[in-house]
Amino acid sequence: xxxxxxxxxxxxxxxxxxxxxxxxxxxxxxxxxxxxxxxxxxxxxxxxxxxxxxxxxxxxxxxxxxxxxxxxxxxxxxxxxxxxxxxxxxxxxxxxxxxxxxxxxxxxxxxxxxxxxxxxxxxxxxxxxxxxxxxxxxxxxxxxxxxxxxxxxxxxxxxxxxxxxxxxxxxxxxxxxxxxxxxxxxxxxxxxxxxxxxxxxxxxxxxxxxxx
Length: 212
What we know:
- This protein is an all-alpha fold and 212 residues long.
- Helix content is 68%, strand content 0%.
- Helix 1 crosses helix 2 (36-43), helix 5 (87-100) packs across helix 9 and helix 5 packs antiparallel against helix 11 (184-201).
- The chain is elongated.
- The termini are far apart.
- This is TetR/AcrR family transcriptional regulator.
C-alpha cells in the first residue's frame, strides 16, 4: 500500500486506521519491533498525521490497549456463552468459546495487551496500566456468573474474583505456550485443562452440568 501524498491525500480518519493497524502489527512483531514508519506505511498515513494524533509511540501503545479493550468488550458481550440459563454452564461455555476462537495464525488469536505488557511492564507504566485495565476488566465480566454458581452449589474457600483472574492467567499462559511451541494446539490443550479444573472446583467432573 502506497503512502499518501499531496496528490493522493489520506482518506477518512487516520487515528482509527493507525489503531487498527497497530492491533495486528504489535501481535505479529511485538511492540518494540513495531516502528512508527511501519505503522504509517501500513495505515497509509503521513508521519505528520501520526504525530498529530499521538505525541509518542508510548501514547499510541496506551491508545491501542484502550482500543483493544473497547473492541473486545463488544465482541465478548455478543458471544453465545451468555445464553445458557445455568451460571456454571455459562462459565464453561466461556472457556469453550475461548477455545473455539483459537484459530488461524498465532497473531490472529493471541492477545494484544498480553503481548504488550510482557514487553513494557517495567519500561512504560502507562502502557502497563492500560493493559492491566483491559485484562482485569475482562476478568471482572466473569465474576457475576462465578459468584452465582458458587452460591447455587454452596462453594466457599475462594472468591469469584480470584477464579476470574485465574482464567486469564491460564489463557495468557496458553498464548505464550502456543508461541513457544509454534502451535495453536498447545493453547487449546491448556483450555481443556482449565475446563476440567473448573468442573472439579464445582464438583461436576462429568460433562453434564445444567443442575441445580
